[in-house]
Write a structure and sequence with these properties.
Layout (H helix, E strand, L loop, with lengths): L1 E4 L2 E2 L9 E6 L2 E2 L10 E6 L2 E2 L9 E6 L2 E2 L11 E6 L2 E2 L9 E10 L10 E11 L8 E11 L8 E11 L8 E6 L2 E3 L8 E6 L2 E3 L8 E11 L9 E7 L2 E6 L4 E5 L1 E6 L10 E5 L2
Parallel strand pairs: 1-3, 2-4, 3-5, 4-6, 5-7, 6-8, 7-9, 8-10, 9-11, 11-12, 12-13, 13-14, 14-15, 14-16, 15-17, 16-18, 17-19, 18-19, 19-20, 20-22, 21-23, 22-24
Amino acid sequence: MKEHRQELLTGERAAYNTHNEAFYDTTFADGESPLKESSDIELVGCIFKWKYPLWYSKNIKVSNTTWLDTARSGIWYTENITIKDSLIEAPKQFRRSKDIRIENTMIPNASEFLWACENITLKNVQAVGDYFCMNSKNIDIENFALVGNYAFDGAKNVTIRNGKFNSKDSFWNCENVTIYDSVIIGEYLGWNSKNLTFVNCTIDSNQGMCYIDNIKMINCKLLNTDLCFELCRDVDAEVDSNIDSVKNPINGRIVAKGINEIILDEEMIDPSKTEILIKE
């Protein structure tokens, strides 16, 4: 494997169509698409300063590397990339890419991050930005923190463990999402989704969990959560707290320590199809 050490690469397509090469402590400065159409590349301690660095690339290993804000839209149409111990400051990172692994990485400007991608693994990642992971699928996340609205809109086949979310309108239009041991804060959680499961989660969500087909909650707490389960089908909720209010679930079973208000409009739903129990 050819090695590049402490180089300064400038100009458009500075290392275009490079294969089986390693870059150490190298700065990719002004110039678009420096590693476009590359494959079997290793990047260690590098800095990206300009746009579109890794488009249409394959088999990329990255560690201790920084994307500045100006290196936006950096990784599109790329396959099989691993990023560890890095800083991604650039927005709009990852579009229509697959087989992505990110570990021990901060993403302080994660606007429009991971759109229409598949086969994603995130571990020990912190991110700030709206529209995270929109329309992506096959996602496995562990130890994750996100501040940003509209997260995971349209995502499919998602598993999250130990997450912390401050995200309004998160998990809309989703399918097959399971979240364990997480804290989720944000209004209107999960609307228009199918097959959502929450296990040991704490949720603070005004009008959360509405218009969902098949929602399951196991040992969860619902804080400051009102008008929940509106027009939800197949509700199976075990809640280890009080609920401010429940409104017009279509059918299912809800168990809670207490419910301050239960709204069942017989013109909208058949109340007999939902069992609501208060735990002693």
